[in-house]
Amino acid sequence: MAIHTLSSLVCDRLFDLHTRLLACGCLLGLEHYNFRVELERLLGEATSDSLQVASEIYTVRGTEPFAIAELATFLRTCCGLYSNPNNKDGNISTDHYFVSLFISQLTITCVEPLLNILSDGLTCECKKKSFECYCRNGISKIIGKLLDNYVVNTALPLDPVSIWRWVENLHFHDSISADRSETVKVLQQDATLRWGVYRHVLSDNFDANALKEALDNHFQYPSHAHAGLCFKDGDQEYLLNMAFGEENVALWRLLFPYHFRNRQITERKTNPLRQLCRRHALSNPRFMQVWVSAERGTKSAGRPAQKLARLSRRMKQRRESERAMDLQWIDSHRDEISQGMHWNILDCFAGLLSISILRQTIVI
Predict the structure, then answer these.
(1) Is-above-0.70 flag for pTM?
(2) How many CB atoms lie within 10 A of CB 22?
């Protein structure tokens, strides 16, 4: 009877978290007690309190008695705890620190299979634009935390193919820095690992659309992808050399460093990447065609801006010339103006003086 009462306390959502954890602790003191019924009901409730009680059971009993599939089900259920601004249910909890704690205590023998299961077949289900998509928010954060555990506890070197398989379809709405994620830290510091991922994704891939999608969404501008794969110094040079070596003109074209002609002369500096591309172009006619086409496109695109800049300079010179002529006229007719013979000039002076006094008053 006492065991039945404790089980009811654990599973009853009407009781507060402290009471449910105390009851759970009493049941955990029974060495051979089977928590299957309680775990099924706790995961079915899927609230922050119920899932925290479930994590307590998994943590105290250890993960060995439970199948990997059961742990994966638990983590998938925890995805609902992560905030979604599009969710109309105001009762969704954002208290999910216990999930991070639970994942950090998992052994490496559990982490890798969980990464494989949770990332397998992960795709967008809402079909919305990237900035509106939140259907992978929770699962992406959980896989990210599993990756942090993995990179800390697994033996080096890390496999770039596996890393890409786990992060390829993750989707985030907030970029995380290296001091908050071990995975981001390792990927940003280990150029060999990062280049291994780039090579796996981009090498021998001659589909311009697929290459552009990978570069834009994962490597060059990863606003929603894993922050660890963002380009660092030297990455573009590595990929340009790889593309040249494979005669992958499509990839080379996408990585081509364009010349910014509208910069001020004092801001223009020698670009090592353009020097590298020039050497490539001089060595291979196919790349020279891309170079010429890109340069023509840059000049063509820059013509409207250059025309506008010239027009702006001419207008500035005209205004300065007219102002100089006005000042010269005022100086030559100073006596007449002081005698009130040019009322329009005095009216203009009075207006400017009023504005000046008003500005000083506002500043004070």
Answers:
(1) yes
(2) 14
- Please report, for residues 71, 147, 300, 302, 320, the alpha-carbon distance to residue 309 in angstroms, rounded to integers and kept in the order given: 63, 51, 15, 10, 17
Tokens 């996408």, residue located: 254
The answer to whether residues 67 and 41 touch, using CB atoms and an 8 Å cutoff, is: no
User: By C-alpha distance, which of 326, 358, 320 is closest to 342?
Assistant: 326
Measuring CA to CA, which residue among 128, 192, 125 is closest to residue 158?
192
pLDDT average, residue stretch 314-343: 80
Count of Cβ atoms closer than 10 Å to residue 95 Cβ: 13
d(CA 164, CA 122): 13
The position carrying tokens 């409207």 is: 304
Per-residue HEC secondary structure of the chain comes to: CHHHHHHHHHHCCCCCHHHHHHHHHHHHCCCCCCCHHHHHHHHHHCCHHHHHHHHHHHHHHCCCCCCHHHHHHHHHHHHHHCCCCCCCCCCCCCCCHHHHHHHHCCCHHHHHHHHHHHHCCCCCCCCCCHHHCCCCHHHHHHHHHHHHHHHHHCCCCCCHHHHHHHHCCCCCCCCCCCCCCHHHHHHHHCHHHHHHHHHHHHCCCCCHHHHHHHHHHHHCCCCCCCHHHCCCCCHHHHHHHHHHHCCCHHHHHHHCCCCCCCCCHHHCCCCHHHHHHHHHHHHCHHHHHHHHHHHHHHHHHHHHHHHHHHHHHHHHHHHHHHHHHHHHHHHHCHHHHHCCCCHHHHHHHHHHHHHHHHHHHHHC
Q: What is the pLDDT of residues 173-197, one digit of tens each?
A: 877 888 888 999 999 999 999 999 9
pLDDT digits (tens, 9 = 90+) for 141-161: 999 999 999 999 988 889 999
pLDDT tens string 255-293? 888 765 544 444 556 788 889 989 998 988 898 998 888
